[in-house]
């Protein structure tokens, strides 16, 4: 019984924890401009994150090493440092976006300007990282994030023309008023949002934090394979709401208030209350994950002691690094730059950085010296290689498409 | 000089013929771990004739998965070898010169992780 509960809790946290500011913004923007014609990308991205999160969890359980320890060992100091610089900067950008997201969500709930909320959000994130136990932190934000299911509820209450939505999704085509290059630019952004590298840094480091052994892998596999696809469905519901309400009205999403507009229309005040809780929980949870990820990557690369299972005094550099990251994020946001814009860039830059994370994981997951008998099977390798090609293509195409489309505008 | 500076340095034999570049350094651990960590001793250098980028670990094992990544990395590092510290005559800023009659060992390790 305890085991069933554990699995259920894991699945629920995976669903609630899947959506972050990147998924929220990108899916709503895409829904409001392209309808559901890019929904296939969410599917490709979710399958990819399932594959590599699983692989990194297995590497962590079998070898006791988190992802960036593996990267440091395999790439050597030079290539490793290049990788760290890229991954860390993009992660920092995501931290900034998530904190901005919390502040924007709190602004929606309170009508107090978001710049006032930024220090509150950053200090709250720091306090939780400093004080709260890893499992409690993960479960509470994950469960509260589940309230975002209200997007799916609202979609039903809006009584859309399901046939037309299915038509958009199944016969994917570039809408008449959009160009092919902006279609593919947003395809890459959605892919980057679904596969953001921090999820893998956090997942594998979390496996070490919680001391997983091979025995625990079955549960983590169920959590990932059930939770992430359901989380992906939430993403689709966000895009669906935007496609039903905002697309016909000609509203292209540029702010968080537009993202929740369809929920207010479909599910009223109660729906609005739920979605505000969900927004705060999802962005807060993701802010915790990304901030921890920046500490994890730095500490694992430089060989500092790390982890929330240690007291802050015993992992001083790890905690100090995270404090500095939060301060940098706050400083960037204090310039008044639009958090939604940071988010839009962060998902595309994530897509560019994807090969840096996923190539080393794939290689180490094949090495019997690390993995013993738990090396990748053939089907996983074939799928992994297919994804590596997709990741590489997305990564190489991102910058040219960004220039051609003027970042999608 | 720190070890990192050595990576990428051209390697010549005693006649001045270029053999490749330093791609990696190989260490061995002597005895049990001390208070902090085991004492590591520099065993030799890995020299690669075509590319001095990272091997991603493929020089150490006979691993062929995942295809075609493994094959590609092997091909880039074909002909690479390990020279022992004793076979190195001069380590300079610009070049590493080997002694006459040095032995080129295979970079692969056995099952137990031994040279």
Concise summary:
The complex is a heterodimer of chains A (409) and B (115). By secondary structure, chain A is mainly alpha-helical. Chain A has 16 helices and no strands.
Layout: helices, strands, pairs:
The complex is a heterodimer of chains A (409) and B (115).
Chain A: H1 2-18, H2 21-34, H3 39-63, H4 67-110, H5 114-131, H6 134-145, H7 150-157, H8 162-170, H9 180-195, H10 197-209, H11 217-249, H12 256-302, H13 316-334, H14 339-364, H15 368-371, H16 378-405
Helix pairs in contact in A: 1-6, 1-11, 2-9, 2-11, 2-12, 2-14, 3-9, 3-10, 3-11, 3-14, 4-5, 4-10, 4-12, 4-13, 4-14, 5-12, 5-13, 6-12, 7-11, 7-12, 9-14, 9-16, 10-12, 11-12, 12-13, 14-16
Chain B: H1 3-6, E1 10-12, E2 18-30, E3 39-48, H2 69-76, E4 81-84, E5 88-91, E6 96-98
Parallel strand pairs in B: 1-6
Antiparallel strand pairs in B: 1-2, 2-3, 3-4, 5-6
Structural class of chain A: mainly alpha
Q: How far apart lie the N and C ends of chain B?
A: 26 Å
Query: Could you please say which CATH topology of chain A applies here?
Result: Amino acid/polyamine transporter I
| CATH topology heading of chain B | SH3 type barrels
Biggest sheet overview of chain B? 6 strands, mixed
Q: Tell me, what's the shape of chain B?
A: globular
Structural class of chain B: mainly beta
Description:
The complex is a heterodimer of chains A (409) and B (115). Chain A is an all-alpha fold. The N and C termini of chain A lie far apart (52 Å). Chain A contains 16 helices and no strands. Chain B has 115 residues and is mainly β. Chain B has a single domain, classed as SH3 type barrels, CATH 2.30.30. The longest helix of chain B is centred in the middle third of the chain and has 8 residues, at 69-76. The model of chain B has no long low-confidence stretch (mean pLDDT 81). Chain A binds chain B through residues 73-79, 359-360, 362-364, 366-369, 375-376, 381, 384-385, 388, and chain B through 4, 7, 24, 53-54, 56-57, 60-61, 63, 65-70, 113.
